[in-house]
Design goal:
Length: 235
């Protein structure tokens, strides 16, 4: 049985990624293969990605539709891979992990990532997800629930609370600087909140009221409740 037949059999019986895993286990033992992988990785040219997307969109619509139909599976593959990457990286010593992540972050194009995120947000806002009868809204709601549950299980509650507190303190400091991205985000959120009083009433108010209510405003209510008990006993 030749290599092509083995690959085809593996794909048919176990699936593409399982076949890739078994094939990679064999190839990774070959020094020449590892050298080729390093050469390919060093040849990645991010600016050409835009041209590649334009080619997929306009040169062959049929191939584009096939790729779009496979997006859920592709996203699930990336999610599973990232989940395992996070799990494995959590076993690394913190100093080594910090140094590694620092190198990763230093090499990311923040402008391109910001443009991509802004474009996706604009697209999402234009889809009419606010429509209660939208099938997309229901799908996003289910996705958000599953995401929140799994996220809560993966991130320990105490550690998450501590990290959120640290992040909030840092965000508050950056928001004071008018030239910071956080300040601009706060200004945009303020404008959006002013245009949506129902959001303030039914979302922000229930969340913030226990925090913003002065302690002095709560004490009389507590004393009043305590004073009612003897009156009831005498009656």
């Amino acid at each position: 049985m030749n290599a092509d037949t083995e690959i085809a059999t593996a794909v048919e019986t176990k699936g593409l990624l399982d076949a890739a895993d078994r094939i990679l286990r064999e190839l990774i033992r070959t020094p020449k293969f590892k050298e080729t992988v390093v050469i390919l990785l060093n040849s990645i040219d991010p600016p050409s990605a835009r041209r590649l997307v334009r080619t997929l969109f306009w040169q062959d619509p049929g191939l584009l539709l096939s790729i779009m139909g496979s997006l859920p599976a592709l996203i699930n593959v990336v999610s599973e891979a990232l989940a395992e990457v996070a799990s494995q990286m959590n076993t690394m010593p913190p100093p080594l992990l910090q140094d590694f992540l620092n190198q990763v972050v230093a090499g990311i194009d923040g402008a391109a990532a910001g443009e991509a995120a802004g474009g996706l947000v604009s697209m999402a806002l234009g889809l009419g997800i606010s429509d209660q009868e939208s099938g997309l809204r229901r799908g996003v709601s289910v996705l958000a629930q599953d995401f929140a549950r799994a996220y809560g299980e993966a991130a320990s509650g105490a550690a998450l609370s501590e990290r959120l507190g640290t992040w909030m303190a840092g965000a508050a400091e950056r928001a004071k600087d008018p030239s910071s991205a956080v300040h601009r985000l706060v200004q945009a959120a303020e404008a959006a909140v002013r245009e949506n009083p129902a959001f303030v009433e039914h979302v922000l108010k229930p969340i913030l009221q226990p925090v913003l209510e002065p302690p002095a405003a709560r004490k009389p209510a507590e004393k009043k409740t305590a004073a009612k008990k003897p009156a009831g006993g005498e009656a």
